[in-house]
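User: My collaborator and I are trying to settle a disagreement about how two of our proteins should look. Neither of us wants to argue from intuition anymore, so we agreed to look at predicted structures for both before our next call. Could you fold the first one, then the second, and keep them clearly separated?

Assistant: That sounds like a sensible way to settle it. I'll keep them separate. The first protein:
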Amino acid sequence: MLKLIYFKMRALAEAPQLLLNYGKIEYDYLMSWDYFDGEWSSVKSKVAFKQLPLMEVEDGTQICQSIAILQYIESIAGLTINDPLKSAEAMAVLQSAQELFAPLNPTVNFATGQDFKDKRDKMRSGLESRFSDLARCLEKYEGRYFIDNTPRAAEFACFHHLDLSKKLDPEILYGFPRLVQFVDDIQNIEAVKNYLENRPKLVGVGVEPKLILDGSAHPTGVNKTYEV
């Protein structure tokens, strides 16, 4: 079975999990300390590119970098785009969505108090500019998504960042009706809906961010914690 290794945060492991669930591919999600049997600071130097997420496939091969992981999942799920031009267009969207990672993901998962407010306000114009780009890309073809009516890596990476941005401001997408429709289309896919309903809840954003794991609240981060 595939293994996906990451941390206690809602960030770069979300799009892979959305794609895995959509493709009905079984996998285990492991925290870094469980997989490596040690704290991140003690194993980081031994990991390719010194960062996560990481995917381990059935033969033990490790795939690093989130876009590479997403491409692998697309391939085994039979979702690869055969047309080289449309494949390149989808990759451009995927890369553009991944560029939203910082400062959006770190701010939502870790920033608190005035620091959270300052970072939120500072990034707003940049987010809205990229949202406008993504909305325009959705208008190019007639399907629900960027290329056609099938969601792939680009769609799930985009969805993650749009969904996470609502933790900054629940109304941030209101100026982009095409993106609102896109988010609605993605989250109403049955497999996606089930995943979203059952994934760990992210609470206390901007105040004291925590993930609810097995019924207990744990501070977001890269180290193992216990019930709070």
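The second protein, kept apart from the first:
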Amino acid sequence: MRSLREQVYDYLRAEMARGGLQPGAFLDLNALAASLGISRTPLRDALLQLEVEGFVEILPRRGFRLKALGLEEIRSLYQIVGALEGGAVALAGPRLRPEDLADLRALNEQMAEAVRAADKDRFLDLNLAFHGRFLDRCENPRMSALIASFKQRLYDWPRRQTFLQDWEARSLQEHARLLDLLEEGAFEAAAAHHRDVHWSFEVQEPFIRTYYQLERED
């Protein structure tokens, strides 16, 4: 059974993902605790976990504020996830079985169908499953947990309804190239492609600015 702190954390994350809690807003801990029928302690503990994950910030004498996602943080997250997932690809490559590669090809095709249908949520779920296969095969649970937390910051604050079909179509091409390299046994080249193209902030920046509506940010 999940602890009260974990239940409160899940509630806050769900509210953030659906847009019930907006970036930049300060949280009234007394009012929020009262609305949930709990004390401030599990609420504060859950917020401290969210602070560690980058979702909230603590301002002296002002309290907890929901932290907006800016361009520099996105740049940093792309660099971190690229390095970690590139490492995961290098580790997983020799462990991938032919059926894994076939499943990954199938997932990529299902993502293409989601792009054609403009089904953003299905695309995102399939995309996480695609990347998750490498994380499973790298057999490093701590790395997988770190990557998952960083991706949650990128994707779920809140989960945006913007769907850039050109970006997703390009992502599918990058996936296909990654699979080609893995099938050839070029594991280091596959890892470099994943890190330096798929998760390159510089390569993806035009799409990132549009997706996160940061065109006017310096």
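Some points you might bring to the call about the second protein. Residues 5 and 41 are 8 Å apart (CA to CA). DSSP finds ten helices and two strands in the chain.
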